Amino acid sequence: MQRLPIYCLFLIVCAAPAYAGDGGYTMLLSRTEKYLNSLSTIEANFVQITPEGDVASGKFYLKRPGKMRWQYDPPVPVLMVSSGEKIIYYDYELDQVNRIALEDTLAGFLALDHIRFSADTLKVLEAKQSDGVIRIRVTQRQKPDEGELTLELSDQPMQLRNLIIRDAEGRDTNVSFGNARYGLELDNDLFVFKKPGGGRSNYRK
Prior knowledge:
By secondary structure, the protein is mostly beta strands. The chain has one domain (9-193): Lipoprotein localisation LolA/LolB/LppX (outer membrane lipoprotein receptor (LolB), chain A, Clam), CATH 2.50.20. The chain has helices at 23-38, 106-110, 199-203; strands at residues 41-49, 55-63, 67-72, 78-82, 86-91, 96-101, 122-130, 133-140, 148-154, 159-166, 172-182. The relative contact order is 0.22.
């Protein structure tokens, strides 16, 4: 069975601008914020690459506010679902359920009712645009040693492409999105956790 550090996705990702006096910097954050707030739903494939080079793939769904689903493909036995305040992490192999506050997760940032880079929870370390790519890197203001998150977006048109999660040891996990579709009508049942029968055997079907 393939085991991956899926927990890397559980970084807090609200942010606050580090250099409010920089007009270009502030404008870039404002444009990105406006784009993220324009997203009502997302359906996309994702590929995750760990620091060790292990690769996992799956399907990502987002319905703002509060709803998200990360469905990993076999052999990774993981499903993560949120319908609001909690995200449920289910391990098919262990038949084990864990619950984490959505506001304390990476997904919590993307699923907020109103995304704003002017929140005071975290700090923007970098916001730049180069060769058609926007990069915004953030960390927790009170816990800067616990890791960082970088959002990478294409520009013109703006589109979220990658997430780079750096852990406390400085190792990067990359999550890239592909075949994304926006504004679809997504059934709320996608975001309701229903414990499957059969555990691992059910997952293989």
